[in-house]
């Protein structure tokens, strides 16, 4: 099975298929340590998070960029080759200190994912949610969206379009092909994604640490790497297919930007 993190707990439950858990970031052994934290999609939570709103329409338009090639780069000079119709304002290259003002939650299967009409994703084509700003905040939203979709039907289309080609993608496909899809019907869970921190960023790649919240105010972390390729952020797994790193229990939200309004 796919190793979903670079370090594992001591429980034998790590051998269970992690797609079958409530989420995909923390498999069974790690769930014991972090009190059943959310994985990809979100842990069961009765209250919809503050700031939740209606889903953006598939035809949502982006903020006008600096050129006709789909937005300016961070320095204001030159341009990125963006897919047709993908235009973003990429001037803000600072690591985010707060969530976007237009942030809200969009349902993905039985989970909720943070999205923005100006930063991304701006395009919705089935399971492929694409067109993120070429900024640190764009990398953050891409890290949430792409990983979350890997548990559901249509995951192979997501991998083909939104995972960097190479040995890592091949290993991810091989492992994921042996597991069942997570059901898409049912009540959407709120609360798993609590916040984030941008650990490293340049215009070519970024590492985003996700902060997840479980019951009884338990928190855990998992890091995701993305790379700028073909005019958008794509997931960059390790050569063995590992998607997550830095999985650990933390005491709270200090040091993270939180999704709470």
UniProtKB/TrEMBL annotation:
Q: Which InterPro entries match?
A: DUF8175 (IPR058488)
Question: Per the record, where are the segments of Basic and acidic residues compositional bias?
Answer: 87-103
Task: List where the protein spans the membrane.
Answer: 24-43
Q: Which UniProt keywords apply?
A: Membrane, Transmembrane, Transmembrane helix
Biased region (Low complexity) positions are 50-66
Record Pfam families: DUF8175 (PF26526)
Please note every region of biased composition (Gly residues).
67-79
Instruction: State whether keyword Lipoprotein applies.
Output: no
Q: Does the keyword Membrane apply?
A: yes
Residue span, DUF8175 domain: 74-257
Region (Disordered), start-end ranges: 49-103
Q: What is the name of this protein?
A: DUF8175 domain-containing protein
């Amino acid at each position: 099975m796919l190793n979903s993190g670079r370090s594992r707990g001591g429980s034998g439950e790590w051998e269970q298929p992690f797609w079958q858990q409530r989420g995909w970031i923390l498999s069974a052994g790690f769930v014991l340590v972090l009190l059943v934290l959310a994985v990809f999609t979100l842990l069961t939570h009765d209250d919809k998070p503050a700031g939740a709103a209606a889903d953006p329409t598939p035809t949502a338009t982006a903020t006008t960029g600096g050129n006709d090639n789909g937005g300016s780069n961070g320095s204001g000079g030159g341009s990125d080759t963006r897919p047709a119709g993908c235009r973003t304002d990429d001037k803000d290259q600072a690591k985010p200190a707060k969530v976007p003002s237009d942030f809200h939650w969009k349902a993905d299967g039985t989970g909720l994912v943070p999205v923005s009409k100006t930063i991304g994703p701006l395009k919705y084509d089935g399971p492929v949610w694409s067109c993120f700003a070429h900024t640190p905040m764009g990398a953050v939203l891409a890290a949430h969206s792409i990983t979350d979709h890997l548990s559901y039907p249509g995951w192979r289309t997501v991998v083909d379009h939104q995972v960097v080609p190479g040995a890592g993608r091949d290993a991810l496909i091989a492992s994921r092909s042996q597991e069942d899809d997570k059901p898409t019907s049912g009540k959407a869970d709120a609360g798993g994604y609590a916040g984030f921190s941008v650990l490293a960023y340049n215009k070519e790649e970024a590492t985003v640490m996700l902060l997840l919240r479980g019951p009884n105010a338990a928190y855990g972390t998992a890091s995701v790497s993305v790379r700028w390729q073909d005019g958008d952020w794509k997931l960059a797994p390790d050569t063995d297919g590992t998607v997550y790193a830095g999985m650990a229990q933390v005491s709270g939200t200090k040091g993270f930007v939180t999704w709470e309004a």
